[in-house]
Design goal:
The model has no long low-confidence stretch (mean pLDDT 90). By secondary structure, this protein is α/β, with parallel strands linked by helices.
Length: 437
């Protein structure tokens, strides 16, 4: 049911904000309720790997886009209702805590308003014709039509009721029929998510991916860009069934990591059934998505960066050995070891990847010598991000091209910054360098 992934991948793709850095979640999440935000986060942490479930969610959100849907409930009212319903008069241990008479009255009134608003919403033309949610709509209507809730609809929203009536409703809502009321809230929270994503779709011109069954080996993304990068450059990459490995080269600062994040984020978000930042996309559903972009040293077990890479490759290998179809990304594979070991390791791993036709792999590397051997594999494709030299100043197009590049300009940048000259001038130069840094 759910796509296999891990914390490393979610951190690599920056799905959630850290410190002052926004995450992909923040783009899509404009939910009005705390419950909606919780469900949105759960969707991000647990993408889908069932084609039918993904298509249903895509069609549901697309229908809300078409309706130009707005959220029909008051967020503050819903939060008040949730707080009231979820309040526990009998917490485990400690002193018993109860709601005040005023809090109970406000809670009861908020639930009565919720019932009336929800029924009107479900009977509206848009929801009545939304076939993707018909099963859920009927289940919620069945709860609203339960004879136990007839007294709720006999009351009018925002009309003060007697103390005796409040007491009776409190027993009904928070005791006898609490599970059913929570079921209604759960449905409303999902509506909150769908409306939020639908509105973001139009605002950011996102597109819904075309879903293909598992095992069909299709991964085609046109005009993909990173939604958090201002004035981002769009790129296209097609991985048909005959191509399962992309070997990516390019100098530092040429845009490899940004492109890899953009492409991998689209693959991940597509498995959520959400629209993606691209011109168009088609993909075959996978069992798992794993990326390795910013792999930290595992100091807890005394592991170097290289050993952490080895453990990461081992984890992927174990998943593949179980017959799973995966999307796998390694940015600069085996950067933590010497050039000779990196070449041998990169060749061994990439050769093994090319034999797994049911999965897709992208490996970026500075070890361009590996490309000569990998060209013998018909399922490997080669792309690079170019560097244009204007005299001694490198410029970057950030536009993906087919082929392999041996662009290296590390020393050019060092010389352009005058670092060697500064160091040659001794302590005075060193102090100047510290100021610059």
């Amino acid at each position: 049911m759910y796509l296999q992934t891990d914390t490393q991948t979610m951190d690599d793709l920056r799905l959630f904000s850290k410190a002052d850095t926004p995450g992909i979640y923040d783009i899509y999440n404009h939910s009005f309720t705390r419950g909606g935000q919780t469900i949105m986060e759960a969707m991000f942490r647990k993408p889908l790997n069932n084609p039918e479930a993904i298509i249903k969610r895509i069609n549901t959100i697309a229908a809300f886009v078409k309706m130009k849907a707005t959220f029909p409930f008051d967020g503050a009212m819903l939060d008040q209702a949730e707080k009231y319903i979820s309040f526990d008069d009998h917490p485990g241990g400690g002193t018993k805590v109860s709601l005040s008479e005023k809090e109970v009255q406000q809670g009861v009134m908020s639930v009565i308003t919720l019932f009336h608003t929800l029924r009107q919403y479900l009977e509206s033309a848009g929801m009545d014709s939304l076939k993707e949610l018909e099963e859920e709509r009927q289940a919620v209507m069945a709860v609203l039509n339960d004879p136990a809730f007839i007294p709720v609809f006999n009351e009018q929203p925002d009309v003060r009721i007697s103390f005796a009536a409040v007491t009776a409703f409190d027993v009904l809502i928070r005791n006898r029929e609490k599970k059913k009321v929570l079921q209604l809230l759960h449905f409303i929270y999902h509506i909150d998510v769908y409306v939020s994503v639908a509105q973001v779709t139009g605002k950011h011109n996102l597109v819904f991916p075309v879903v293909h069954p598992k095992g069909t080996g299709i991964l085609k993304v046109d005009g993909v860009y990173h939604p958090l990068v201002k004035n981002a450059i769009a790129n296209s990459l097609h991985m048909p069934p005959s191509r399962n490995l992309v070997f990516l080269t390019g100098a530092n600062m040429a845009g490899k990591s940004t492109f890899l994040r953009s492409f991998s984020t689209a693959v991940y978000i597509a498995h959520m059934g959400f629209p993606v930042a691209a011109a168009s996309m088609e993909f075959s559903v996978m069992d798992g998505v794993y990326t390795t972009i910013n792999l930290p040293d595992n100091l807890g077990i005394g592991a170097s960066h290289f050993y952490a890479e080895v453990l990461r490759v081992k984890k992927i290998g174990q998943e593949l050995s179980e017959g799973k179809s995966l999307f796998v990304l390694f940015d600069e594979l085996f950067r933590g070891t010497n050039v000779k070991d990196a070449l041998e390791g990169t060749l061994a791993v990439c050769n093994a990847f090319t034999n797994r036709k049911d999965s897709k792999f992208i490996v970026s590397s500075h070890i361009i010598e590996a490309a000569d051997e990998l060209r013998k594999k018909g399922s490997a494709a080669f792309y690079f991000l170019p560097t244009l030299m204007k005299g001694t100043v490198p410029e970057y197009t950030y536009i993906l091209q087919e082929g392999v590049t041996n662009d290296k300009h590390g020393m050019i940048i060092i010389n352009n910054e005058g670092i060697l000259d500064i160091l040659k001038r001794g302590n005075k130069g060193g102090n100047r360098l510290n100021k610059q840094l």
